[in-house]
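Hello again, I could really use a second opinion on something today. Take your time with it, there's no hurry, and the full record follows here:

___
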Amino acid sequence: MARIEIYDTTLRDGSQGEGVCFSVQDKVLICRKLDELGVDFIEGGYPLSNPKDAAFFQEARALRLNQARLTAFGMTRRKGIKADEDIGLNALRNAETDYVTIVGKTWDLHATQVLGVSLAENLDMITDSVAYLTRLGRKVIYDAEHFFDGVRANPRYALETITAAAQAGAILICLCDTNGGSLPEHIAQGVAEARRCAGASIGIHPHNDSALAVANALAGVQAGASQVQGTINGIGERCGNVDLTAVIANLRLKLNLECLRPESLERLTETARYVYEVANLNLLNNQPYVGSSAFAHKGGMHVHAVNKLSRSYEHVPPEAVGNTRRILISELSGVSNIAAKAGRKFHIEKDRAALKKVLDEVTTLEAQGYQFEAAEGSFELILRRQIGRYRRFFELDQYHCAVSRRRGGQVMTKVRLQLKVGGRRINAAAEGDGPVNALDGALRAALKRTYPGMAALHLVDYKVRVVNATAESAAKVRVVAQFRSPEGVFGTIGVSENIIEASWQALCDAVDYRLIHELEAKTTV
């Protein structure tokens, strides 16, 4: 089978997802990242729909893409308008991309009841639009919207629409499962029928409303489609588009089909997380292949087996897609987890007594509401305490936190604290937007002269979760904070009925973790 083309529509179809809004600069950044990954086509947007997309195509003229070809997206001409007079088609012309993608109606229901045109007029709209853009020298990809619904409702007409597009000059007909409701066998049948009559290459564009988008994309490829259209991480309208990260990995690792460049697969996880970051979306931990939990092991039996033979519980090597294996620590863990997580680092992988002590403390703390899967910094401190490699850099005498709300709605938080640092008593105070910000400021003020390494510690994420909801407003809360330092990104945790105290615990663990690592780095130089 020929090479499978990857057509990315993150910047257009993906931007229609709830909570997704790309600036022009966001689009430029993602465009460059997709080109680095090696996708074949990047759909930049619909230049008529909004000024931002039009501005992107202006900016894109200065882009020097190595692999990807930029496409502008639009629709067939409006009814009763000549193609060369249609404002939408001329916006595609003005985008000055070599490739353009236009979408047209395949389902007779949409032609007659949504557009309000006859079936014959809809065919003319398709033919005129593709032919006009082809005469302008553009290479036209035709998206057959609702193809699989159309071919079930009126197969003869649905096939006539894609034949009309191909005869007018479209280089590829992409079959869209726009409602996302088809099953893989329907996709395979539809692709096979389209290949028999269209006279052009076939692509597949599945949506995920039935949680089958990836399966449908693969079914389409196995039936003869040579292009897959989708988005990074599957973002998009309603339940999203097909997730290209999973499609690419499955094509390469499961079906042994060529796509992207040979070395690109190892950049898959990096690209997925970059798009999440630019889109300001939370990562999905359990996302196949690229999620942080995709190769995470928690059960003691699993970890024991993975340590002996990784493929016993991993369907592909994590490094194949640029991901990493993670060993999680919880009350479900065995000593194998502890040994795998930190045994080699601290040379205790064979010290069963030490490993058992750590496991017992983790189990006790998790019964109180702690969870250490995302708090590896706090877990390491537990281990250090048990093996005598822990150091405390300060002791708290007291802190006082006051929150005041003034007329007009302004809320201020003040923190005063007293610490013992190296035998000296230090007082410090700070104001902040909230109690965590103020606590952090006061602690930094108290420690900055003695421990300047504090300046390299930065809070990057903060989450609060109720532990025992049945206690209502008196419930315990769990605070998990993520920090960035020269050691990398790490998490810490605190649990208390008081959210400020839980935050203080997580903050103190982060400070201890940072300063311990800084001290050890200096002593090993």
Q: What stands out?
A: The domain at 5-279 is CATH 3.20.20.70 (TIM Barrel). DSSP finds 17 helices and 16 strands in the chain. The longest strand covers residues 395-405.
